[in-house]
Amino acid sequence: MVLSEFTIQVLKNLALVNQNIVIRNGNLLETIAEARNIFVQCDIDEEFTDEFGIYDLGEFLNVLGLVDKPHLKFSKESVTVSDSTGRSKVKYFFTDIENLTYPTKKPKMPSEDIRFTLDNDTLNRVKRAASALGHNEVVVSGNKDTTTLTVRSTTNPTSNTFSIDVDGSSNVDKYNFIFSIPNLKILPGDYEVIISSKLISQFNHKDKPLKYWIALEKTSTYGE
Questions:
Q1: Spatial distance between the Cα atoms of 78 and 136, rounded to a whole number of angstroms
Q2: pTM of the model
Q3: Is residue 223 within 8 Å of residue 174, measured between CB atoms?
Q4: 10-residue averages of pLDDT along the chain (224 residues)
Q5: What is the C-alpha to C-alpha distance for residues 36 and 16, in angstroms, rounded to an integer?
Q6: Angle subtended at Cα 140 by Cα 135 and Cα 145, rounded to the nearest 5 degrees
Q7: Most CB contacts within 10 A, which of 77, 82, 106, 193?
Q8: Rounded to 5 degrees, what angle do the CA atoms 116, 118, 124 make?
């Protein structure tokens, strides 16, 4: 098996969410954060025929980088990674999945109360503003006609802020949903974002079969 560049990009992204991963039969990759506040799911072109666990996904990806055009050959307990000539090989052993943190069921959106478009440029602006201002939160606020993303400190009302309007819709006239910016560990791209008043969100990539479910901060408010 040869992994596509997209699959490797997804695996690198999953490693940011959780260093553990359990890969199951089929072509679906998924992981959940140790705090269980981020869930990621992606369909890939490759199809795995066996279930196996990797304790340190970052280390495994570094192993793939040891050879050019890595070819993967799986056995029950390990995978052999070889280069295109077969001269260089690395044998990498799997980990018992019972020792790993992995999702046991897919999250469900209990409701769809807010929906907005988050394009890649806007996401980059938000992250740059957070870095420049020293804030770790972005607030999604507005009414039925306007949706605004604001980078600010939710504990300091006189903090410096950055705001940007986005295309969106809602079922209520007032809301303040708060994301922890470090939780926005998503691949670059444009997303359709759905938020539930139950403080769970879903990010759907517009071009790739990639989805994230990200919990919101408990200080969020809805209809208040």
A1: 40
A2: 0.93
A3: yes
A4: 92 96 95 96 94 95 89 92 86 94 90 94 96 96 90 91 94 90 96 96 97 96 80
A5: 14
A6: 145
A7: 193
A8: 150
What one-letter code names the amino acid at 33?
A: A
CA 167/CA 182 separation, integer angstroms: 23
DSSP secondary structure string for all residues of 130-197? HHHHT--EEEEEE-SS-EEEEE--TT-TTS--EEEEE-EEESSS-EEEEEEGGG----SS-EEEEEET
**Type of residue at 15:** A
Question: CB atoms < 10 A from the CB of 104, how many?
Answer: 6
For the chain, the residue count is 224
Structure tokens at 11: 């695996």
DSSP 120-135: HHHHHHHHHHHHHHT-
Please report the beta strands in 49-82, taking only residues with DSSP state E, as ranges in sequence order: 52-54, 71-74, 78-82
Amino acid code (one letter) for 211 = K
Coil, helix or strand at residue 100: coil
